From TrEMBL:
InterPro entries membership: Aldolase_TIM, DapA, DapA-like, Schiff_base-form_aldolases_AS
E.C. numbers: 4.3.3.7
Binding site for pyruvate: 47, 206
CDD domains for the chain: DHDPS
Record's keyword terms, sorted: Amino-acid biosynthesis, Cytoplasm, Diaminopimelate biosynthesis, Lyase, Lysine biosynthesis, Schiff base
Catalytic activity: L-aspartate 4-semialdehyde + pyruvate = (2S,4S)-4-hydroxy-2,3,4,5-tetrahydrodipicolinate + H2O + H(+)
Site (Part of a proton relay during catalysis): 46, 109
Protein name: 4-hydroxy-tetrahydrodipicolinate synthase
Keyword Lyase attributed: yes
Keyword Acetylation recorded: no
Biological function: Catalyzes the condensation of (S)-aspartate-beta-semialdehyde [(S)-ASA] and pyruvate to 4-hydroxy-tetrahydrodipicolinate (HTPA).
Length: 291
């Protein structure tokens, strides 16, 4: 899965003022990533507000991204949830032919045990031949995937090829890198420690800020993959304030404010999410103008 090394971007879903998906803006966002060095694209993730999209809207978003990408970059699709049977059914019913892998988040709200998490992903892996990227984000799911669970899944299922590790725990990430098979990819899901994780042997990042600052962010990760800590950290320090800003009032409000400043899409979100405050918007714009 060399195509999943580097910087992947978790695409936003732009909306119009009336709440409809803005497919023209989505095309602009996709092209902006491709034109500025991103290695692969992730559609229907958390940043894409996928939980507020209808089944038809998801299909339409996928169609727009696939057609706009036109085979230029590898694609990953988000298919996950808290009901294992529903996730398995969606995997079986979805046309995955355009996608290189599936990103599947650990169940939220249920708070399963480690055995429950293992059995959930065992069912997911058996439902498709597509490569699976586990997604650990305990800040959203209320349960953390233990290192031992990740190692067990990586060894037991050949199509479980990677994890997007977004716990913000560099020590756990380093243990995953050490104890999983050599070809298993540990991908950062936390922009602030993406450089450190990559330098420690990780495979890069699935990023949010990379969507707004793709050129420098993707170059930082490429430098880290080469082991160039000095130059990669120069870019990290240049970028790091923007990471704090876009997450200050939650995701994807911050990144949509940045993308709006870049004239790529408008700031509209779907409830229960709302746009960022004017104070934060001003800070993001000030950063971009100085940048």
């Amino acid at each position: 899965m060399q195509q999943l090394k580097g910087t992947g971007v978790a695409l936003v879903t732009p909306f119009k003022a009336n709440g409809d998906v803005d497919h023209s803006a989505l095309q602009s966002v996709v092209n902006y990533q491709i034109d500025n060095g991103i290695e692969y694209l992730v559609v229907l993730g958390t940043t894409g507000e996928s939980v507020t999209l209808s089944k038809q809207e998801k299909q339409d978003v996928v169609k727009t991204v696939v057609e706009t990408n036109a085979g230029r970059l590898p694609l990953v699709i988000g298919i996950g949830g808290s009901n294992t049977a529903v996730v398995v059914d969606e995997l079986k019913q979805t046309d995955l032919s355009s996608f290189d892998a599936v990103l599947s988040v650990s169940p939220a709200y249920n708070k399963p045990t480690q055995e429950g998490i293992y059995q959930h992903f065992a069912a997911v892996a058996q439902a498709t031949d597509k490569p699976i990227i586990l997604y650990n984000v305990p800040g959203r799911t209320a349960s953390n995937m233990a290192v031992d669970t990740v190692v067990r899944l990586a060894n037991d299922y050949t199509n479980i090829v990677a994890i997007k590790e977004a716990a913000g725990d560099l020590v756990a990430a380093m243990k995953m890198i050490k104890h999983t098979p050599d070809d298993f990819l540990v991908i950062s899901g936390d922009d602030m420690i993406a450089n450190a994780m990559t330098l420690a042997g990780g495979a890069g990042v699935i990023s949010v800020i990379g969507q707004g600052l793709p050129s420098d962010f993707s170059e930082m990760i490429r430098l880290a993959l080469k082991g160039n800590s000095i130059d990669s950290y120069k870019l990290h320090h240049k970028l790091e304030a923007s990471i704090d800003l876009i997450f200050a009032e939650g995701n994807p409000g911050g990144i949509k404010a940045m993308l709006a400043h870049l004239d790529l899409c408008e700031e509209h979100l779907r409830l229960p999410l709302v746009p960022v405050s004017q104070k934060l918007r001003t800070s993001i714009i000030d950063f971009m103008n100085a940048y």
